[in-house]
Every structure is written in structure tokens, then in C-alpha cells.
Amino acid sequence: MNPTYQFRHAITRKPAASITQGLRAIDIGTPDLERMQAAHDAYVATLCETGADVVTLPPLPAYPDSVFVEDTALCLPQGAILMRSGAASRAGEVDEMAPTLRNHYKEVRQIKGPGIIEGGDILVTPKEILVGLSDRTNQAGVDELARLLRDWGYKVRSIIVPAGVLHFKTDCSLLDRETILSTPRLAASGCFEGYNVIHTADGEEAGANAIRFNQFVIMAAGFPNTAKRLRHAGYEVREIDNSECAKLDGGMSCLSLRF
Ligand code: CIR
Known about the structure:
Blueprint: E1 9-13, H1 33-49, E2 53-57, E3 73-76, E4 79-82, H2 93-104, E5 108-110, E6 122-124, E7 129-133, H3 139-149, E8 156-160, E9 172-176, E10 179-182, H4 184-187, E11 196-199, E12 211-213, E13 216-220, H5 224-232, E14 236-240, H6 243-246, E15 257-258
Parallel strand pairs: 1-2, 4-5, 7-8, 10-11, 13-14
Antiparallel strand pairs: 1-15, 3-4, 6-7, 9-10, 12-13
The structure holds citrulline.
């Protein structure tokens, strides 16, 4: 069992009607709750299809972005680390997630600050933990994470996220032990040296936020050339409608915590 992409559990949260107020870099339209809920149901069903146990938490109207649970924690085999959001409107989401993680884990640690760090900036590979420096994650956050992880034996490396990209994993995903799906603009920095890299196809950068979850690579629908590349490389690809989450800069990884 490889804990970087083989999982027994996932935690998700239903979108709330307040999703219309969710954060976005550019306004390309108001997300439609019904369509988002249908896509979320399909996402949860796909996770369940792998045999994983999936917890779906109730909506949290007070936190419009709370469907994006990934940002609240880092889940590892040894324990979970609660994050510290870089967005004021999302700060309270961590406390809402903490009890569920405490039900699953004996050991739950917490980023206390002053640094900030969100789960969307963290990519766990079998040899290291890569953390993107973005508008939501700073070096102080990375340093605190590295201190919290030291006795579990993890190596933490920080990476600069390209300007205008929300999170590190907006632009990349782990596909297997040594393979990463990345946008060319992120991989150009050389940050994935030593890994096999599959690039997203031209004009399909928004397809980079996928997840390897047990036997599936789950990606947003609408990136046919990238999906073709992944299938050609031997992955079993599942595509899920991401039209509504995309309006809020969210994608496949953001919608779950996996462990
Ligand atoms: C935000 O700006 O925080 C949300 N609208 C999107 C969060 C996406 N999360 C992720 O990529 N892990």
C-alpha cells in the first residue's frame, strides 16, 4: 500500500447555498448550487467505487468555500496537521474539520502561526513533501510544517508557485510513485527534477488539478487531450464535471482529504 495515492478514507463536505459568495480570482459567473451538488455527488460516488470509506460532512453556510476541505489539513499515515488559512474568510474552517480528524487519528497537530499554509499547496510524494509558496502559503508556514513533521521523518521542500496560480496543486498532481502531471509553466522551473513529468496539453492547464485515488486518476472533464495522454500512459481516468467549482478556482484535489 503506497500512502501517497492508495487510500482507505476520504472526507468531503457538501457545498452550501452560500457557495455563491465563494472566493475567486476573477469573476467568471456565479456557481450554480444544484449543478455543483450533482458534480459533488459524482465525485463522492467515484471515490466510493474504489472501496474507500467516504465521510460527507454537512454544508457549512457560514463558510462559502468550505466545500474545498483539502485546504484545512494535511493527512499522513502518522497523523494529521491542521492548517492555517491565508484567507480571512476561511480561517474558521479548520476548527470545523478538527473533530472529524480527531475521530480518525490519534495524533492531530496544528499550525499555530504566525505563518500561513493551506493544503492545496502541499503535494506529498513517496520521497518528500513539496510545498508551494503562494498567496495562501508563506515560508513561515512551511517552516512550521517542517518542524511539526521532523520526528515523522519527512523532508519538506518549498517551491515557488507561478504568479496568478492560486495553489501549487492548481498546477500539478501526483499520478504514481514517481510521476507528476504538471502544467508546462510550473514544470519549467525544474522543480520536478528526478520525477517523470506528464505535461497538460496546450490550453488545458486547468486540467492539472487531478487526484490519483486508488486505481483512478480523477480529473475535471473538459480537457480531452490531457485525458488522452493519461490514458495512453496507462492510467484509468475518470472525468467529473468541474464547471461550478472552477468558477471559484477549485478542482478535484480541493474537494477531499485523503488518507
Ligand atoms: C479559495 O479561493 O480558497 C477557494 N475559492 C478555492 C480553493 C481551492 N482549493 C484548493 O485548490 N485546494
